Amino acid sequence: MSHQYDVAVIGAGPAGSVVSALLQRRGWRVCVLEKQHFPRFVIGESLLPHCMEMLEEAGFTEALKAEPRFQFKNGAAFTWGSRYTYFDFTDKFSPGPGTTYQVRRDVFDHILIQEAAKQGVEVRFGHGVTAFDNSGDSARLSVETDEGRQYTLEARFVLDASGYGRVLPRLLDLETPSSLPVRMAHFTHIDDNITSPKFDRNKILITTHPVQRNVWFWTIPFGDNRCSIGVVGLAEDLAGDSETVLKKWVYECPMLAEILDKAVWDNGFPFRSIQGYSANVKSLYGRHFALLGNAAEFLDPVFSSGVTIAMHSAKLAAELLDKQFKGKEADWQGEFAEPLMLGVNTFRTYVNGWYDGRFQDVIYAENRNPDISRMLSSILAGYAWDSNNPYVDKAERRLAALAELVGPATCA
Ligand SMILES: Cc1cc2nc3c(=O)[nH]c(=O)nc-3n(C[C@H](O)[C@H](O)[C@H](O)COP(=O)(O)OP(=O)(O)OC[C@H]3O[C@@H](n4cnc5c(N)ncnc54)[C@H](O)[C@@H]3O)c2cc1C
After folding, report:
1. Quick check: 7 pLDDT over 60?
2. 141 and 187 share a domain?
3. In angstroms, what is the span from residue 305 Cα to ligand 1's centroid?
């Protein structure tokens, strides 16, 4: 087993799979180190159409089309009390795909990394990274296998795509507290048995709690009568065991109570929770390394932006590293960190606006302006980096003005 590579990638989630395939396709020798064995569970099941551009470039789309459990997705629906509205992602301002999938991540992530391996990427499952040394001319990673064997892997550059593991931020003391308060989610997969025509299986359904507006729910249908369902709120509001908390809050929402009247909750899939997932770092790159996806920063699940940000960061890093390896100057601040943060900060504006109520006022407004809706639809479809979109370019100012114009929405 050789231990010398152009690039070592930590983690085989969407960021790791996409970046490794993009670099392998450019002719570089890539090794992915993945602590777990796949398929493995991870939350984050609703993709955004912008993802399809990176999946196509990485050569993954044909394999994805063949999986019947993935659900076609063309938008996002929102409900609050008896209010119901939606954004159609095919009716949007920015160019690019308008449809995507909702996926079981164990299946999805496994397909992606298998496809990367077929393209020549070396993937080592059950190999966890425990230490990092960037003092020399190349990077050295200490690796421990799940059988307890230890070895050192050398690479010219390391891309940390370790998600919630946040390997390099922890080892290099790069973590900084997120500006977002500590929220938590409880979730499971149900046999939904939904027959109501009110539920559009081609869209994620986001539900605002009728009384507590900062508590919301996701309903993400898959292609096999299953739905991922979860509740998100402040940790102090959602304390308790996941099954009790989730069911209690779900059945307080009129539309969820109606469409889930025949749902089977007890189907062997565990009830889970995750808390304090928002994270931030002091720097997205350094000597011989860069951080991708959740290893770098995670905002909030409300607009399903996590996998899209992970893949966008992978694309930017692959392009810049290719340039660097070819002996050209690579400006990691100007060509990676700043362009990446444009989209992350766009999402941050609308996430903050969701929780302070302004973006909910806009979403639930009685008569939405069609042109503005198309610009917002673009952002919700993942095109948060399109600075031609005024709601990206001047996100904060535009959102504030629009919220003032439409005024506060009320739960009907
Ligand atoms: C409640 C909730 C709901 C969400 N819903 C959505 C959604 O609907 N849509 C969406 O796009 N996003 C969603 N997200 C975000 C999504 O989970 C992440 O953004 C996404 O999984 C990030 O992908 P990644 O490739 O960065 O990391 P991951 O998918 O987490 O993959 C990282 C990999 O690194 C491996 N690893 C960790 N440590 C080590 C180590 N030491 N050595 C080697 N390997 C290691 C892990 O085993 C893992 O396989 C949600 C998040 C939360 C908290």
Report:
1. yes
2. no
3. 12
